[in-house]
Amino acid sequence: MRKIISFMHISLDGFVAGPNGEMDWIKVDEEIFDYVGKRISEGDTALYGRITYQMMENYWPTAGDKPTATRHDIEHSRWYSKVHKIVLSKTMKDAGLTNTKIISDKLSDRINEIKQQPGAEILLFGSPTATHSLIQLNLIDGFWLFVNPIVLGRGIPLFVGIEDRIKLKLLNTQQFTCGVTELNYIVDRQ
């Protein structure tokens, strides 16, 4: 069965965005881009909430074509164009969307059907609202967290509405020169 891995930047105090959704505190550099690029190149499915999908869709399809495109822009733009995209949204329709499936109802059933299909792991990018829904339904199998060296004090937390403990097993860590530390966990269902 395929696994859903949540990929998220997080502050030291557990927030994924500021109070108004701001993400200007997130540190990324070529070292992180290279590391992430290797990992996501193995994935064939990206999962987004509507807001994150719209941000991605507004940038990545043409990012690699710009004269100022970085190596990361080119590589990620290529990956984005070929990866199958799943969007959790109650308002979007998938008519005319290339390589994109919209899930608007029966979330648990629809996600479990996708997890049963052949393919690599499903990468859930950002999307705090979608992540909260999937956590509450016990559908996330791992967390790939990039802990940024900042305390925000307030904002959008990663973990909300959790009624039962989620036991995690640390697979590995990676420290980056910019101060970000990656923590790679799987959910321990035993």
Automatic annotation (TrEMBL):
Instruction: List membrane-spanning regions.
Output: none
- This protein's superkingdom? Bacteria
Q: Which InterPro entries match?
A: DHFR-like_dom_sf, RibDG_C, Riboflavin_Biosynth_HTPR
Q: A Pfam family for this UniProt protein? A: RibD_C
Residues of the Bacterial bifunctional deaminase-reductase C-terminal domain: 2-180
Q: Which PANTHER family match?
A: 2,5-DIAMINO-6-RIBOSYLAMINO-4(3H)-PYRIMIDINONE 5'-PHOSPHATE REDUCTASE, DIHYDROFOLATE REDUCTASE FAMILY PROTEIN (AFU_ORTHOLOGUE AFUA_8G06820)
Q: Output this protein's name.
A: Dihydrofolate reductase
